[in-house]
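> example.struct
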């Protein structure tokens, strides 16, 4: 088997460097009150989008994000060969119910909150491998559906500790092609599971941060790069707690992350003014921040080299109830503007 595309332990460089042709974002009400609201395509007025359950609302978010991405990219659903996506709900029903009418071959993914980077990775891999000329990547989350599934229904009225994060309501979709104008996916570093024994479902940042640090460190070693290579390095949804853990973790290995590192969970909300405690989380946290704010920063060439590292905790409701730990995962995608 040819190893020409592989660098080091976990990194693949693409020969064709698939192009991100366009994105679509649909954000919830609280997200519309945050610092990057102007970068979203559609704002929901009531977080239900005319549906009668939170779960159906999440599917509607995914559907509309896909429609926005097709429109903004100029690529129709009929042209897209594969759609990759997933969410936090049982069996990824948020995504599958939302995109079922598109008529696109669907490959469901579960990377928890890392799904935006995972789906981008798979879409780019299929294009670079010659299996498709156009692919799409989609993910979603909803504060109310996530609280009901993983913690307590809203009616319970439980208190949230300071380490808790606010699950982002919304959906994001990106359309990738083998050619065209736009930022390019240069390479990916696929993460491995890292489990440091965290069992507190209200401390997701601490559970995911070791995986983020491991993937970023591996990326640097595989590519012979350091933080200064990138204009911005952004993790998915570690929030205030996990963000500081990553800085400390990489500092111990000799990498200074204090100059150009941020986290989607800190970008999407003003955590103090909006009372989101440690910041944002959920699949749509990285999804909306990347497909909205970061993608447009790339288009405007305010950023030319981005390392996007979405993070996820791979637990289920049952595993937490049984006292299991929360394994973390992080996938890195290097996105560059052609010179």
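> example.seq
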């Amino acid at each position: 088997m040819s190893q020409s595309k592989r660098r080091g332990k976990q990194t693949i460089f693409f020969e064709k460097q698939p192009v991100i042709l366009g994105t679509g974002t649909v954000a919830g009400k609280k997200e519309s009150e945050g610092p990057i609201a102007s970068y979203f395509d559609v704002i929901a007025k009531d977080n239900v989008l005319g549906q009668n359950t939170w779960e159906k609302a999440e599917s509607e978010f995914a559907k509309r994000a896909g429609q926005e991405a097709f429109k903004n990219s100029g690529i129709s659903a009929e042209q897209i060969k594969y759609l990759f996506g997933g969410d936090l709900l049982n069996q990824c029903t948020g995504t599958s119910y939302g995109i079922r009418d598109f008529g696109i071959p669907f490959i469901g993914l579960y990377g928890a909150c890392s799904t935006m980077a995972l789906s981008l990775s798979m879409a780019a891999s299929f294009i670079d491998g010659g299996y498709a000329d156009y692919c799409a990547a989609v993910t979603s989350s909803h504060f109310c559906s996530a609280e009901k599934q993983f913690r307590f229904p809203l009616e319970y009225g439980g208190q949230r500790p300071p380490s808790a994060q606010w699950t982002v309501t919304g959906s994001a979709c990106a359309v990738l092609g083998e050619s065209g104008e736009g930022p390019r996916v240069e390479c990916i570093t696929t993460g491995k599971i890292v489990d440091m024994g965290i069992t507190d479902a209200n401390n997701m940042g601490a559970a995911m941060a070791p995986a983020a640090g491991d993937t970023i460190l591996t990326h640097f070693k595989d590519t012979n790069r350091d933080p200064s290579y990138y204009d911005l390095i952004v993790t998915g949804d570690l929030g205030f707690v996990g963000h500081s853990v990553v800085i400390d973790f990489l500092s111990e290995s000799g990498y200074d992350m204090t100059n150009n590192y941020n986290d989607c969970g800190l970008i999407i909300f003003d955590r103090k003014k909006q009372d989101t405690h440690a910041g944002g989380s959920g699949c749509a946290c990285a999804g909306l921040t990347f497909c909205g704010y970061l993608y447009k920063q790339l288009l405007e060439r305010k950023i030319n080299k981005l390392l996007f590292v979405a993070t996820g905790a791979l637990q289920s409701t049952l595993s937490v109830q049984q006292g299991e730990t929360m394994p973390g995962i992080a996938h890195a995608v290097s996105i560059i503007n052609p010179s």
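> remarks
The two ends are 32 Å apart (CA to CA).
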